[in-house]
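Supplementary Text 2. Reproducibility record for the structural model of the 238-residue chain.

All settings were left at their defaults, and a single model was retained for analysis rather than an ensemble. We include the record here because the model underlies the residue-level annotations in Supplementary Table 4.
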Amino acid sequence: MDTVRTEDVTLHVADGTTMNSCVAAPAGGGKLPGLLVFQEAFGVNSHIRDVTQRFAKAGYVAIAPELFHRTGPGFEGDYNNFPACMPHMQALTPDGLTQDAQAAFDWLQKNPRVLPNRTASVGFCMGGRTSFLANSVLPLQAAISFYGGGIAPALLPRAPQIHAPMLFFWGGLDSHIPQDQVRAVIDAMRQAKKPFVNVEFSDADHGFFCDARASYKETAAKQAWDLSLRFLATYVKS
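Retained model, structure tokens:
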């Protein structure tokens, strides 16, 4: 599935706001699984659009909602200027993110190309946290979290509400997410008896999957991509 069609769609969120989203899907007909793609702190930028298209090439109808739509519609941050992202991140709330995820999920369910009961999520950094949150409120079939900072401690009480198997990726060199937070996430999943896979790349740092960042780690990124596709195929393509 090499030919991909992309479009921008505007979603109506329950709080009355509107949210632009990037959509990518294989050209042609046929029903496919749906995938929510949640951004990093730097917005739905060229990297996130590229990831969305890569998942489309792998056979998914993928949608990346702009989670900063309330404070910075169209925001695309500079990887060398993280402080510029902070006001938008600090304005996010679990309720707002839940509504955003719900709006994108509903769009997929109404899309005639999306298979019923075959939607998953994937997210990076703050999007990894959002993927965990979405899995606690939406009837997903699978969810992936890349270095999801902030899951612990704030979202740990949601572990018993997790709907679908989770795949966690962490960088062993990541100073942004302390090891005790990683352990707390995994312990919460285990105590809630929820299915999960936990992967740490010992020689990778925060943001290792993003080839536009200085912390990009090619070996880890390639393995994480392959594992992600296999994980998703197990639960949404079988």
